[in-house]
Amino acid sequence: MELPVKTQMDPCTGTGRFLFVASQMMPQAPLVLFGVEICPPLYHACLVNMAMFSNHPYSIVCADTLRLGLSGPTSKMWDLGNRWVLPDLSAFYWKPPPIRKDAFSLKAFTELK
Fold this sequence. Notes:
Number of domains: 1
Shape: elongated
Strand order of the largest sheet: 1-2-3
Distance between the termini: 41 Å
Number of helices: 3
Low-confidence stretches: none
Number of strands: 3
Strand content: 15-25%
Mean pLDDT: 82
Order of helices and strands: EHEHEH
């Protein structure tokens, strides 16, 4: 019986311990790991840890999880993961319209996609 592929995402990866322990707990399962870390030194530590300990494919990006407009593992953002030199992910950041005293519209702000 073939198992379906599972994904595991950690929005605050740190050094990647949660992801590589998940990888070690299910060594034979079809598992894909995703992580986001904002701090570059922790991001680099996570890349090293994942390379040493993970048994599964993974994509780790250095970004701010709270500002990313994540569309899931199919997003092109994940293709920019696992790079030692940090890529520019600003195209994937959610940017709310500026709030100005003379141009703020609550209706427009709540209807953002």
